[in-house]
Amino acid sequence: MKNLIRNLLVVCMGVGLVGCEWQGGGDSGSWNDRYNFVNFSGNYRGANGYLVSEYSMASSSSSSSSSSGFIPPIQTVSGSFSGNSISFTTAFVPVKPGSVTVYFDNGAKGSVTDNGSGQISGAYLNAIPGPHPASGTIVYGNGQVSIFFPDILGLQNASVTVRYTVDTGSGSGGSGGYTPGTTKIKIYAFNVFQEGNKLRIVDNNGSTYEGSFGSIRTTSGADQDTTFPTYSNGDQIMAQFEVKGRSAANIAVQMVGTFQATIAGVTASADGGTTSMRLTDRRILGTWVESGGVTGDINGMASSVEVATTTDTGTTTTP
Question: What is the pTM for the complete model shown?
Answer without folding.
Answer: 0.57
